[in-house]
Design brief:
One of its GO terms (biological process) is response to oxidative stress. Its main location: cytoplasm. The chain has 378 residues and is mainly beta. The protein is built from 4 helices and 28 strands. The strands form 3 sheets. The protein has a 15-stranded antiparallel sheet that branches. Strands 18, 19, 20, 21, 22, 23, 24, 25, 26, 27 and 28 form an 11-stranded antiparallel sheet that branches. β7 and β8 (119-121) form a beta hairpin. Residues 1-11 have low confidence and may be disordered.
Amino acid sequence: MNWLKSTLSAAVGTQEPIYGPDAIQSVAQQAQETSHTVLTKDDLRWKAYQYTNVETQTFYIIADEGTLVMVQLIYSNIAGIHTTAHFNTKIFNLQGDGEHIWNTNPLSNIIFDEKMLSFAADNLAITLNEEGDSYSIKSTVNPDSVVDLKITRKAPGFAAGKNGTSYFGTDPKNPWGSMTHSFWARCAVEGTITTKAKTYDLAGRGVFIPALQGMKPHHAAARWNFLNFQTPTFSAIMMEFTTPPSYGSTKVTVGGILKDGEIIYAGTDNKVTHTNTEQDPESEWPEPTSIKWEWSGKSADGQDVTAEVDGPLGKRLDRVDVMGEVPGFIKTIAGSVAGTRPYIFQYSPKEKLSLKLNIGGVETVEEGFLFSESTFIS
């Protein structure tokens, strides 16, 4: 058993020592000087670091016809010796009367273009256009999820602070890990996903999030909250992670409010509150049943901006056991060795919630479509 535990800890990592909150340099520190930075084409380059990291491109699509879809590329490196890539698609069953259509496929013959802006593999291409404002996604990796999509940015992309990155390590000049998020929070989508049963017309709105976890994921974050809220006029987005106790259980919360052609606010003065929870018996995590999301900051012209989305989440869309494919005895040991028990709870309430937005004392209230995730890891 000791041999097995030591072998497993080399793969998934044991809990780290208590370094304290000073061992994370949150992007919120950057945001004190620069609330956010507008993304350029160069900011969209793949990093493909040769050390343990997970790099992702995630697209969330809300079709005008009512379909909710996630398309995701995951590129990971383990200890600089093993690189893998997976292409994932998920078509959510918003009616709750059947299964979601979930596909995940390993990729072969991975290649980046010369400028590290586009990605290809056998039967897959994710291509950034010359203007740097649109991605095309074409995939026949899985015959039950043939993807032909175009996602075009309609508002400036942003990263919180100067580069959207929080750094981990006791020596700020030589960090041993990092966490980076950037956002295209308001996009137009056209195209389709074709399954064996039907073709889904995905014309509508979307979000694109490139991210990089430059360390073992469960060492960087113990919990996550994510919100994608789309109204006819506005897009509201927020991503929060809480570090494990090894980094002081520090919260890092980035987000923004946008409309076509404009960032109204973006930065780190945001807050997520699980206003009601229920203990989930299977995962043993306190599943949220209602959440309040709050944004606070300044607009580009110096006006005070506050916003909130608050209300019940309704019946969850899905509960994802991240280690569900791992053999049971390994999952048990992973939980005891590394303290990890990762579950993702996903929501999109049928009862619409509203964005309450106040800019310089003028309040606007608009109903919208909500997609939310709450993730518990360790």
